[in-house]
Write a structure and sequence with these properties.
With about 140 residues, the protein is an alpha+beta fold. It has six helices and five strands; from the N terminus they run H-H-H-H-E-E-E-E-H-E-H. It is globular. Pfam families: FUR (PF01475).
């Protein structure tokens, strides 16, 4: 069984993307984390290993991964974009206080897309669902 990292490398090879050490490290970091990091988070995590790397380099590499279908960009209001390497159909719960994003699984809401298409005439290509509240840590801090 091949790892997610090996699958990602194979996909990049087929799209003609050259694998640099920085690209390798950024991809490995994304695949290993569940925190939905910003480009700045990734930069800070890797800057000791790659002192000449900039936030712009991280962001440019993230764009390459997005174009290759390995990463999705999550934008929420005015906050920095966050990046998710889990390309499965899933949804997000977001803490109003600390901004933590946690994945949760739920059967895809295809009926919602069909209803939207029917009522609006749109050719619906997808949807995004987030729920908002307080994560357990922030909720605990509020009650104490």
């Amino acid at each position: 069984m091949t790892s997610r990292f090996e699958q990602a490398l194979d996909k990049l090879k087929t799209t003609g993307v050259r694998m640099t050490p920085q690209r390798h490290a950024i991809l490995a970091y994304l695949l290993d984390t569940m925190t939905h990091p910003t480009a700045d988070d990734i930069y800070r995590a890797l800057e000791d290993r790659f002192p000449s790397m900039s936030v712009a380099t991280v962001y440019n590499n993230l764009k390459v991964f997005i174009e290759a279908g390995l990463v999705r960009e999550l934008t929420y209001g005015d906050d920095s974009s966050r990046f998710d390497s889990d390309m499965s159909e899933h949804y997000h719960a977001i803490c109003d206080h600390c901004g933590k994003i946690v994945d949760f699984d739920h059967p895809p809401l295809h009926a919602l897309e069909l209803a939207a298409a029917s009522q609006t005439g749109f050719r619906v290509k997808g949807h995004r669902l987030e729920v908002y509240g307080l994560c357990p840590e922030c909720a605990s801090a509020v009650t104490h």
